[in-house]
Amino acid sequence: MRLPTFRILRSLKFKPVRYHISRTFSSDNVQTKINEEKLAGDPSLIEFLPSWKEDEEVELRARVTRDMQVLPDFVTEEEEASLLAELEPVLKRMRYEFDHWDNAIQGFRETERSTWNEANSKVLARVRDVAFASPAVGEPLPHTHVLDLAAAGFIKPHVDAVRFCGGVIAGLCLASGAVMRLRHEQHQHLALDALIDRRCLYIMRGTARYDFNHAVLGGEESAWRGQKLPRRRRIAVITRSKPDKHEQ
């Protein structure tokens, strides 16, 4: 089953689930202990917009912070280069698209991959170990979605459709960083930014996955804490959990 990027846009709310994981993973040059503090990501990479007052919806703030996780430097420079080397021959044969059917995304090309070379397979296995270790989140889809966003490209606010993926979205950011904006579906002033920097892993689940839409800001809007964040071509390698059978 091919997973076109924005056939998966649809909003639906589910009750968030709490995950507690302690696990060890390794690759050739990486050995990292994953505990609850590490899995929670770096909270300094999440910033609430001024429109969301500090004393407003305090519990919701805590839930979305827990469920939107950014793990910086998840892959090494060598691992990033290896992933890009495997992807480039495929991507360079494709054109960037600027006329998506619903105008939800501009300046992208995409593919799917279910097999990787040995070194890159270890990196993707590490992603699965971290993001899908708990049986409660379900199994990851067998194919990985590769989204190549041009320097001038952007992704408009959306919620991934439950028909095509389940409760966890885990993305490796390669070649360039970006700012992802999450905005509550019902209360638009409740919003936050996440700095998804180069070589990080971001994980969305629970409240962040279902109650907030998310967007990748374009060049004109791309800023972090008041400073312009230059946007270059960015490649996301995204692993999603299998959709709930009842939603298919």
Automatic annotation (TrEMBL):
Required co-factors: Fe(2+)
Signal peptide: none
InterPro entries in alphabetical order: AlkB-like_sf, ALKBH7-like
Source species, domain of life: Eukaryota
Protein name as catalogued: Alpha-ketoglutarate-dependent dioxygenase AlkB-like domain-containing protein
Source taxonomy: Eukaryota, Metazoa, Ecdysozoa, Arthropoda, Hexapoda
